[in-house]
């Protein structure tokens, strides 16, 4: 009998297949890698658009850097000014904000004649207005009063042609005509040169509609529902007690978007301090601060 093994004979050492569960860590690692891959694709893949390349992430972002001319350049500039000056209240999508500012998208006011539309940003708005079938009662500062004619024309053109609006573009000449029709009482450059800083500051206070919320005498009193300041727009006559001139100018420039609420769970107060830095010139801000400091009752230490 031979001791050699038959190659076809099964032995106890022959490997065999068996079922076993996949380790949990492999499943978790696979899911994490899939998630990270999806995040990376969403951020940098541009959804297979072959016109988008690094370091740009989307066609919209790439378009911002493309050179523009003519009407496209005006609308791009108008959007930039809108986002900086108007978007805080009306939203960058033009849909407005409940209790604060009405929508511009689909608004019948947007496609009115240029003179009527320009009147709103040039002089502000105070009181009831009906937009898209909804009644609003608000105070809007004249945020366009400090814009140049070309800048305001670009903003109005952007608003009238965006978000489905079908209005025509607005020219700088049309804005100039609208401004001259409503600016008869504004002091001339020669008159401003003869004024004291306080007098010029009072003119700035009037020009930008500060009185609409703070009152003609700066004592406030306009209702501001759910504001912690007794539900009123605060008085300005004692700002000298809380600010230096530099601090006051900085505060006016940056504005105050979040007003403390009387009821923390209640709605946002409808009135807040706009960001005036992009709108009011540095010289006007200086004069405005001088005027506000002058409101403090005489005989008291102004602190500056």
Write the layout of secondary structure elements.
Blueprint lengths: L23 H21 L14 H6 L5 H16 L1 H4 L23 H10 L1 E7 L2 E7 L8 H12 L11 H11 L6 H6 L2 H11 L3 H4 L30 H10 L27 H13 L10
Antiparallel strand pairs: 1-2
What order do the SSEs take from the amino end to the carboxyl end, as H and E?
A: HHHHHEEHHHHHHH
How far the N terminus sits from the C terminus, by CA atoms, comes to 120 Å
Low-confidence stretches: none
CATH C-level of the largest domain: Mainly Alpha
Your description of this structure?
The chain is mainly alpha-helical and 304 residues long. The chain has three domains: 24-63, no CATH class; 68-182, Orthogonal Bundle (Cytochrome Bc1 Complex, Chain D, domain 2), CATH 1.10.760.10; 189-294, Orthogonal Bundle (Cytochrome Bc1 Complex, Chain D, domain 2), CATH 1.10.760. Helices cover 41% and strands 5% of the residues. It is built from twelve helices and two strands; from the N terminus they run αααααββααααααα. It has helices at residues 24-44, 59-64, 70-85, 87-90, 114-123, 149-160, 172-182, 189-194, 197-207, 211-214, 245-254, 282-294, and strands at residues 125-131, 134-140. Strands 1-2 form a two-stranded antiparallel sheet. Strand 1 (125-131) and strand 2 form a beta hairpin. The longest helix is centred in the first third of the chain and has 21 residues, at 24-44.
């Amino acid at each position: 009998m031979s001791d050699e093994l038959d190659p076809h004979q099964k032995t106890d050492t022959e490997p065999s297949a068996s079922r076993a569960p996949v380790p949990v860590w492999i499943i978790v690692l696979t899911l994490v890698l899939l998630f990270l891959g999806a995040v990376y694709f969403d951020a940098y893949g541009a959804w297979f658009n072959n016109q988008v390349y690094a370091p740009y992430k989307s066609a919209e972002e790439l378009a911002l850097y493309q050179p523009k001319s003519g009407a496209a350049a005006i609308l791009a500039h108008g959007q930039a000014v809108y986002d900086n000056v108007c978007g805080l209240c009306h939203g960058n999508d033009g849909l407005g904000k409940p209790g604060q500012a009405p929508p511009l998208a689909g608004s019948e006011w947007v496609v009115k004649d240029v003179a009527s539309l320009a009147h709103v940003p040039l002089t502000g708005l105070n009181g009831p207005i009906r937009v898209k079938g909804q009644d609003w009662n608000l105070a809007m500062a004249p945020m366009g009063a400090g814009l140049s004619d070309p800048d305001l024309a670009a903003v109005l053109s952007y608003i009238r042609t965006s978000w489905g609006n079908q209005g025509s573009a607005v020219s700088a000449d049309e804005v100039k005509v609208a401004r001259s029709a409503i600016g008869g009482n504004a002091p001339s450059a020669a008159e401003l040169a003869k004024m004291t800083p306080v007098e010029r500051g009072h003119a700035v206070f009037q020009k930008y509609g500060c009185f609409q919320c703070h009152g003609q005498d700066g004592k406030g009193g306009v209702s501001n529902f759910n504001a912690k300041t007794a539900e009123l727009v605060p008085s300005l006559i004692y700002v000298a007690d809380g600010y230096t001139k530099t601090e006051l100018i900085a505060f006016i420039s940056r504005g105050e978007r979040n007003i403390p609420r009387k009821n923390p769970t209640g709605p946002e107060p409808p009135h807040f301090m706009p960001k005036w830095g992009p709108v009011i010139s540095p010289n006007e801000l200086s004069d405005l601060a001088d005027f506000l400091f002058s409101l403090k009752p005489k005989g008291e230490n102004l602190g500056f």
